[in-house]
Write a structure and sequence with these properties.
Glycosyltransferase, lyase, mainly alpha, Terpene_synthase-like, Terpene_synth_N, 3-stranded antiparallel β-sheet, magnesium, two-stranded antiparallel ribbon, Farnesyl Diphosphate Synthase, magnesium ion binding
Length: about 525
């Protein structure tokens, strides 16, 4: 205990002492924490217990200070070998943690993806993930002994490799109570592909509660300095993986990006791969570039009133298409051109997907018109193929106050949501050439059905169907549908979750704000 200058019997840091006294437990996490801070415990340390955490490289927790303390008390030869290796590599000034390569590389990949610039570094990212996968199969300690590193590796590799979820409870590092590590574990636990992943479900429950509790109690995070950690936690909890939409999420990540990040371990630590300011600059330029490709202004003068809209060139072409076809003259139809284009732009934002965006937006607008037409002034003779028949059936149930069976409702519901005319034509514009075998395959129909069911039953059974949809999207074995096409179904599923999260899809000031940010507002 560091004594107070006013009294040798009183602690100089009473808050720290109270935390230590109030958080002592008999579980694995507390024993690991005591071992991790061995150099501060001196003769009171149980060195026999601490040495259980010695790694293959001779260190304790890859910490030079902890390893040096252990060697001082035990003269362990493996500890000495590790320390000599450090001195040979770094001289007299060694890092606070070594090695930390896997964590730094995975953080870099995660940053590139969350900032929306990963498409520019495909080869580099593939190299990092291939190396990480080899380390994973080898049971590398640098991955499995640190909760944050293990969680990132699992999150980035799980959709590609389908490996075991049990790793999260096999590491002492997983028990250290840290908001940053818990947030990584939460993100990893969201990617469940199979119905029997109970470990991930339990982990998701704990990590969903823990960060909120820590932040609400205003506890200082000891693992790293991150002034935006509160916003990161809030965004992760409010916007789950299946509703995490490209442009909206990227904008928030850019806003809250912790450039020049410093981690606080036993002393400060920084790396060019963690919180790199160049990544942030590139992300801002890329975000603005995707908008500036088609950025313009359009002036409309109806009824002698000037309406100035800052729109994309493609959105302008889309609106011109609406005007040329006199769809804007339909009094019964909601004029939701920006919303329809927004639903395409948030996920199909790369410049090369321009045609796919337009196809998506036009189909979406036509379906909005058709829905409004039927709701207000439609007739049986003018219904549109299967989509309109299913809408008519639902309207008949409603008018006649009939309650269909679950089987009847489900057989009709996934068609009546009318996502087919939006998504299916757009498949032709995302890159791969589609053969008759692909178009007629049951896999494509199953993807469509699951996507539509998720939308129709969003507030009921969406979690189960979303998990199944994600599994079909990420699994390549036995699949003939190209990944770019399967991603379209997953993107639409995320759009549905965004549009129907709180409202009926087209109302609310918050949604209008999102539309303006994606289509109009540059990042400065």
């Amino acid at each position: 205990m560091v004594p107070s200058p006013n009294s040798l019997k009183d602690p100089f840091f009473p808050e720290c002492l109270n935390w230590l006294l109030g958080n002592q437990h008999h579980d694995e996490g507390w024993r690991a924490f005591l071992a991790y801070t061995s150099e501060g415990n001196g003769k009171f340390q149980d060195w026999e217990t601490a040495m259980k955490y010695q790694r293959k490289n001779g260190s304790l927790f890859n910490s030079p200070s902890t390893t040096a303390a252990a060697f001082t008390h035990l003269k362990n030869p493996s500890c000495l070998t590790y320390l000599r290796t450090l001195l040979e590599k770094f001289g007299n000034a060694v890092p606070t943690i070594y090695p930390l390569d896997n964590y730094a590389r995975l953080t870099m990949v995660s940053s590139l993806e969350s900032l929306g610039i990963d498409r520019h570094f495909r080869e580099e990212i593939t190299g990092v993930l291939d190396g990480t996968y080899r380390f994973w199969l080898q049971g590398d300690e640098d991955i499995f002994s640190d909760a944050a590193t293990c969680a990132m590796a699992f999150r980035l590799l799980h959709p590609l490799t389908q490996f075991s979820e049990d790793c999260f409870f096999n590491s002492p590092g997983g028990y250290l109570r840290d908001v940053g590590a818990a947030l990584e574990l939460f993100k990893a636990s969201e990617i469940t592909l199979h119905p029997d992943e109970s470990v991930l479900e339990k982990l998701n429950y704990w990590t969903h509660c823990f960060p909120k509790q820590e932040l609400s109690s205003n506890l200082i995070q000891a693992h790293r300095l991150n002034k935006h950690i509160g916003q990161e936690v809030d965004h992760a909890l409010k916007c789950p993986y299946h509703a995490n939409l490209g442009r909206l999420s990227i904008r928030k990540v850019i806003k809250h990006y912790n450039a020049d990040s410093t981690r606080i371990l036993k002393s400060s630590y920084s790396s060019l791969n963690i919180g790199n300011e160049d990544f942030l600059k590139l992300a801002v330029e890329d975000y603005n570039f995707c908008q500036s490709i088609f950025y313009t202004s359009w002036r409309i003068q109806p009824f002698c009133k000037v309406l100035v809209l800052s729109l994309s060139l493609k959105l302008l072409c889309f609106i011109v298409w609406v005007v040329e076809n006199r769809l804007d003259k339909l009094k019964f139809a909601r004029q939701k051109q920006p919303y329809c284009y927004f639903s395409a732009a948030i996920s199909l934002f790369p410049p090369k997907l321009s045609d796919a965006r337009i196809s998506w937006a036009k189909s979406g607008f036509l379906l909005t018109v058709v829905n409004d037409f039927f709701d207000i002034g439609g007739s049986e003779e003018e219904l549109w193929l299967e989509c309109l028949k299913s809408i008519l059936k639902e309207a008949g149930w409603s008018r006649n106050k009939l309650e269909p069976t679950m089987e009847e409702y489900m057989a009709n519901a996934y068609v009546s949501l009318a996502l087919g005319p939006i998504v299916l034509p757009a498949l032709y514009f995302v890159g791969p050439k589609l053969s008759e075998d692909v178009l007629g395959n049951s896999e494509l129909q199953h993807l469509f059905m699951l996507m539509s069911t998720c939308g129709r039953l969003l507030n009921d059974i969406h979690s189960c169907k979303t998990k199944e949809l994600l599994r079909l999207v990420v699994l390549d074995k036995g699949s003939i549908v190209p990944r770019a096409c399967k991603n379209m179904f997953w993107n639409m599923n995320k759009v549905i979750h965004l549009l129907y999260w709180k409202d009926d899809g087209y109302v609310g000031n918050e949604m209008m704000k999102d539309v303006n940010e994606v289509i109009d507002e540059l990042i400065v």
